[in-house]
Amino acid sequence: xxxxxxxxxxxxxxxxxxxxxxxxxxxxxxxxxxxxxxxxxxxxxxxxxxxxxxxxxxxxxxxxxxxxxxxxxxxxxxxxxxxxxxxxxxxxxxxxxxxxxxxxxxxxxxxxxxxxxxxxxxxxxxxxxxxxxxxxxxxxxxxxxxxxxxxxxxxxxxxxxxxxxxxxxxxxxxxxxxxxxxxxxxxxxxxxxxxxxxxxxxxxxxxxxxxxxxxxxxxxxxxxxxxxxxxxxxxxxxxxxxxxxxxxxxxxxxxxxxxxxxxxxxxxxxxxxxxxxxxxxxxxxxxxxxxxxxxxxxxxxxxxxxxxxxxxxxxxxxxxxxxxxxxxxxxxxxxxxxxxxxxxxxxxxxxxxxxxxxxxxxxxxxxxxxxxxxxxxxxxxxxxxxxxxxxxxxxxxxxxxxxxxxxxxxxxxxxx
Length: 416
Fold this sequence. Notes:
Distance between the termini: 51 Å
Low-confidence stretches: none
Oligomer: single chain
Mean pLDDT: 94
Structural class: alpha/beta
Number of helices: 16
Radius of gyration: 25 Å
Helix content: 40-55%
Strand order of the largest sheet: 1-2-10-7-8-9
Order of helices and strands: HEHEHHEHEHEHEHEHEHHEHHEHEHEEHE
Number of strands: 14
């Protein structure tokens, strides 16, 4: 769709005043551990501490407060798989408005249930947000409901920009603000705040490699629909076409846009849990991922502000993300070894692993498909917990020494 009139700094300022009693002014702190690890003065803003777990409340609240009496009476509708739906449901309920939220059938069950518990009418339709949006327009906009776009409505952008206002107040002499970018609403809003109040502050957008719609739009000079290769850990940023209104704000103001890999995102989620005791969804940790992975040149020694945007991640997904990050960190490794199938053969293997200071997490025996002579041998496939890359080298050397001395027959099909 074509862009509407983009918001201005005055809209961000007005939003800050109007939502001040209805949303949280979130905490911002310097992370000692992550500052030391990255070599930058790193400040984290806790947007996940909003009532429904993400910064989306700011825009949703302001968008609903700007509705006319007639629009309020007719109710609102939106398509969302997560945070925007939760934010709208919460603030529509608080303002006494009817909210019809259309979620794709792939939306997490916990978010569907939570939306309903907040009082919204939740309809499940289609496999994508585009399908859900089409349904919302056909069934609810057609009967008078106002459609609230989750990242491109001017009021949504203005509300999101209040994150930038607070960050500039909370951290003096900021050099950089690093912002996750999906549809572009948060980045556009923060740019309006930062470039008006502190033009010297550099603002960098971060998007997943698997859905770099803003980079594509900047290269083409206009919003471009991407063919998304598949799901990303940063599902909240998986918007195949950046919002046209957001893009009008972003293009002349943004200093840089970088991408992060799935590995970068997983490691950032793990680092936050281990160093700050903070849980983030992949999209919420994308800004930090870019800093940790060194994707932004020139940050050394600078004061850098990063919003932690959302914590609404399913427990099962979080478990998988942690395991992936441990693998990337060389703290969880998998390999196989062939040992004697006589009594004591596996004990010999586990003794080698134990002496190297590693811990066996999982072990599986393969006999039938083992291409090894004699027949009295077994291949053991192991998952082992380590402390990191150096420990992995130590275990590999210990295993090789055991093979050379015939305590273990050989490596299996999976080398360490």
